[in-house]
Design goal:
Blueprint lengths: L4 E3 L6 E2 L8 H11 L5 E11 L2 E10 L5 E6 L8 E2 L9 H11 L3 E2 L33 E6 L11 E7 L2 E8 L7 H4 L6 H9 L6 H16 L5 H29 L3 H22 L19 H27 L1 H7 L7 H7 L3 H6 L6 H4 L21 H23 L21 E8 L4 E8 L5 E7 L2 H11 L8 H8 L3 H5 L1
Parallel strand pairs: 6-7
Antiparallel strand pairs: 1-5, 2-11, 3-4, 4-5, 8-9, 9-10, 11-12, 12-13
Helix pairs in contact: 4-5, 5-6, 6-7, 6-13, 6-15, 7-8, 8-13, 13-15
Length: about 500
């Protein structure tokens, strides 16, 4: 029996009946061997309630061929625990922990089976943040430092528990889930697709375009809608504008943490230009309302194209001057280079994604390996890569991606004539019944994956979201080991992960 249904990121939704239902033991044995090859990584793995108890779905990505592998299984998990995949491949840990949290499924051999977050619908209501099983090390010379869960300003809640030997960090444990919003259950509470779109724009406020694009592409696959190259082109512009804005913000934030206020002020000024450009396009600085399923309310005009090209060319020129200064700032380089090291092997082991993975020499970029939209046509994306895996590599990757994204925007808009054929959004197109639809989008943090299951009426009955932060929080914990605790802020900023994207 074929273990997987094979498809790709541009194909239409898959009939659930076409997805193999395999024996878990056979799948476990297959993955135990398959996942030793770094070309594979898990995009999503979740359970859903079914007549037989629970049905599990898994989506794997082949970064070499661009294939997406989908499978499912229905185990008799009440009788015996499932052998833990995390025990042999650590990248499965967030998925098994979530399944355990929501359905109390035992995973035998899991190194530490604790909740991923503390959702309102967790199975064990006696498991609370107050009883969270933090890791502990005994030693007279060791001490613990707790940061959070309440942070200053607008940062969302999360707890960081350091175990230190003097100033040196031996271990960092990150506990999240303080603000679980019930995003996935809200997505299926009713079938109002405009409401669903607004929810996805708010999954992570700094990734409104990325998550809204994931939702729109998922729905369009279910509806069998071809939105055309013009709208795909405009979506590329939107998501690259978001990438530029956030990388500018992170450059400034890293400069702030070591007292380089000049770079911070310069980057904030440039970011303001970018988000004001987005506002001039769609009325919202963060790109909310620019992405809608099956169409657009804000197709580009000649005037808006001219504004985008002018502003982004100016931002690129001015930011490159900041970048060149940063690369010559010895005080900055001394703090950032060889600080917060995460090797290629470590990033591969944890299933790292996005800019942080690329800074460690791991080529994880959906635009190159599993492209969709305008990236899947004649457009040829070459990921920005670094190999040192330190704070400086993560910053340098961001800096180069700002220039690359600016060049992409110019290249796709230079000869673009505003289209008269971009349709208005369609919130009522019938969706394929009894189907699974997924979308993969390279947001500015990395790989975003949305998955939906429809019922016999064609309504979305199950919705799952994966923000790239779910993979990369463990990367931050690895980065600070052996570093001084005073270097935690710059390591944290170099990843800049999302609390709410994780907590959902």
């Amino acid at each position: 029996m074929e273990m997987f249904y094979r498809t790709n990121n541009t194909a239409s939704a898959v009939a659930i009946a076409d997805i193999p239902v395999v024996e878990y033991e056979a799948l476990y044995n297959d993955l135990k061997e398959r996942m030793t090859d770094a070309r594979y990584h898990v995009a999503h793995y979740f359970a859903t309630e079914a007549e037989a108890g629970l049905k599990f779905y898994m989506i794997l990505l082949d970064d070499k061929t661009g294939e997406v592998l989908i499978t499912s299984f229905v185990p008799d998990y009440y009788a015996e625990g499932l052998a833990s995949l995390t025990a042999v491949h650590q990248q499965f840990h967030p998925f098994e922990r979530e399944i355990f949290e929501l359905y109390a499924v035992p995973f035998d051999g899991h190194p530490w089976l604790k909740p991923l977050r503390f959702s309102f619908d967790r199975r064990d209501k006696e498991s609370t943040m107050e009883s969270y099983p933090f890791y502990a090390i005994e030693g007279e010379e060791l001490h613990e430092v707790n940061v959070g869960p309440i942070h200053a300003g607008i940062i969302e809640p999360g707890a960081f528990r350091f175990i230190c030997d003097g100033e040196q960090v031996l271990h960092l444990e990150i506990a999240l889930g303080y603000q679980h919003r019930g995003v996935e259950s809200e997505m299926v509470r009713n079938n109002n697709r405009l409401r669903q779109t607004l929810i996805t724009e708010s999954i992570a406020g700094d990734t409104a375009v990325g998550h809204a694009t994931a939702y729109a592409e998922l729905v369009e696959k279910l509806a069998g809608t071809d939105i055309g190259d013009d709208l795909k082109r405009e979506r590329l512009v939107a998501i690259e504008l978001e990438r530029i804005a956030m990388h500018l913000a992170d450059t400034g934030a890293l400069a702030t943490d070591i007292g380089f206020q000049l770079y911070q002020v310069a980057c904030e000024a440039l970011r303001t230009v970018v988000i004001n450009t987005t506002q001039a396009w769609c009325g919202n600085r963060f790109g909310k309302s620019v992405i809608r399923p099956c169409g657009s309310n804000f197709p580009l005009t000649e005037e808006k194209i001219a504004t985008i090209r002018k502003n982004i060319a100016d931002v690129r020129r001015r930011y490159n001057e900041v970048r060149e200064d940063i690369l010559e700032a010895q005080t900055l380089l001394v703090r950032f280079e060889q600080c917060g090291l995460v090797s290629t092997q470590e990033m591969t082991t944890i299933g790292g994604v996005g800019q942080a993975a690329r800074a460690s020499g791991l080529k994880r970029d959906i635009r190159a390996t599993h492209p969709s939209g305008f990236y899947a046509g004649a457009f040829n994306h070459t990921p920005v890569m670094r190999t040192d895996g330190d704070v400086m590599s993560r910053l340098a990757t961001r800096m180069d991606e700002v220039l690359q994204s600016a060049d992409y925007i110019e290249s796709v808009l230079a000869d673009y004539k505003p289209s008269e054929h971009i349709a208005a959004p369609d919130y009522n197109a019938p969706l394929k019944a009894d189907a699974l639809s997924f979308s993969l989008v390279e947001g500015w943090r990395g790989e975003i994956c949305h998955v939906a299951l429809t019922n016999a009426e064609g309504n979305i009955a199950k919705y799952k979201v994966k923000d790239p932060s779910v993979h990369n929080w463990l990367g931050l914990a690895i980065a600070v080991r052996t570093e001084g605790i005073s270097d935690f802020p710059i390591n944290n900023k170099s990843f800049n992960l999302s609390y709410c994207g994780h907590d959902l």
